Amino acid sequence: MSDLAATLADQLSTRMQALPSTAPADVPLVVRDAGDWQLALMRALREIRAAAEELADESAPAAGIRGAGYPQLGDAWAITRQGARKKWPHAVSAMSAPPAGQEVRTTLEAFGGSAGISWHASEGGWWWIGQGADGAAGDAGEDTYATREEAAARAGAFLQQHATTTELEEVSRA
User: Which regions of the chain are under pLDDT 50?
Assistant: First the structure.
């Protein structure tokens, strides 16, 4: 990548372009040490960044059409799921379906409480909402999960935290 930026900076640098083809091999190194070449390098990097952003803006919806969700888009661009949703709000189709062979909704009953695990189509991931045996309500909040099992594990941890003493005693006897 640095070679690409340096080559583009050489093309942008008026001083580098003014060098005769017969200049000694070490002259470009001297020019690259000059402040105006460093500014040309910064401009080159800006152009590369703009091109990368443009390509990402084209790639994100293409990935979404092929089943990627916002968690995966965020991971690919090294940003959060929420950041990916904000950056590419229409990249993931609201019509997206859960992975093949998985139900859209399922219920987890454990520790005297219950949680619904469901596919969150607009986010391209799994989400949960539940009520513990002690009456506490909870949900995944801003989080969605890449797999139904991960969402169920988080919901199960919530249900365990909100189990009553009676429920915990029954589980330990089983």
Answer: 95
Instruction: Read off φ and ψ for residue 49, nearest 5 degrees.
Output: -60, -45
The 3-class secondary structure across 61-121, one letter per residue, is HHHHHCCCCHHHHHHHHCCCHHHHHHHCCCCCCCCCCCCCCCCCEEEEEECCEEEEEEEEC
List the structure tokens of 107. 């219920």
CB 92 within 8 A of CB 68: yes
| Contact predicate 31/8, CB 8 Å | no
What is the pTM for the complete model shown?
0.47
* Confidence (pLDDT) at 29: 58
Tokens of 127: 């989400």
Identify whether the C-beta of residue 144 lies closer than 8 Å to the C-beta of residue 126.
Answer: yes
Tokens of 39: 């500014």
